[in-house]
Design goal:
- There is one protein chain.
- The protein is 53% helix and 8% strand.
- With 119 residues, the chain is mainly alpha-helical.
- It has a two-stranded antiparallel ribbon with strand order 1-2.
- It is rod-shaped, with a radius of gyration of 33 Å.
- The mean pLDDT is 78.
Length: 119
C-alpha cells in the first residue's frame, strides 16, 4: 500500500511544468545569445561612428597631398627636405607625421607616405 501512496503523491507533486535541457536552452539560452549578438552589433555600429574621420568644414580649404615611396635609408628629415624645400623642416616633418598617423620616425623601404603637395 505504501507503493501506491507514493506513486499518487509523486504524480500529484509533479503536476508542475518542467523543462528538459533543450527546453531550457530554447527559453533561456537562445534569447541571451540573441541579445549578446544585438549588443555586439550595436557596439560595432556606434563605435564605427566614433572613430570615423570628421568631414571637412566648407570654410577650411583642403590641403593637397602627394605620395612618396620611402627608399632604403630615407629619413623624415630627408623626405621633408625634398618635398618641402621652402618650409622649415620641423614643420614639414610634423605635417607628414599628421598626414600618415606616424608615432615615431621609423620608416620602412617601400612604405608610401602622404606629403603636403607644393610645399
Amino acid at each position: 500500500m505504501s507503493t501506491a501512496a507514493s506513486v499518487q503523491t509523486r504524480t500529484a507533486g509533479s503536476a508542475g511544468f518542467h523543462l528538459n535541457r533543450r527546453g531550457r536552452f530554447l527559453f533561456v539560452g537562445f534569447p541571451v545569445i540573441v541579445l549578446a549578438v544585438l549588443a555586439a552589433a550595436a557596439a560595432v555600429f556606434f563605435g564605427a561612428h566614433g572613430v570615423a574621420p570628421a568631414a571637412a568644414s566648407p570654410d577650411e580649404p583642403v590641403a593637397a597631398v602627394e605620395t612618396v615611396t620611402v627608399n632604403y635609408g630615407d629619413t623624415l628629415w630627408a623626405i621633408a627636405g625634398r618635398t618641402a624645400p621652402d618650409s622649415p623642416r620641423n614643420e614639414a616633418i610634423l605635417r607628414i607625421g599628421e598626414l600618415n598617423d606616424l608615432d615615431g620616425g621609423e620608416l620602412q623601404p617601400g612604405q608610401v607616405l602622404f606629403v603636403p603637395a607644393g610645399s
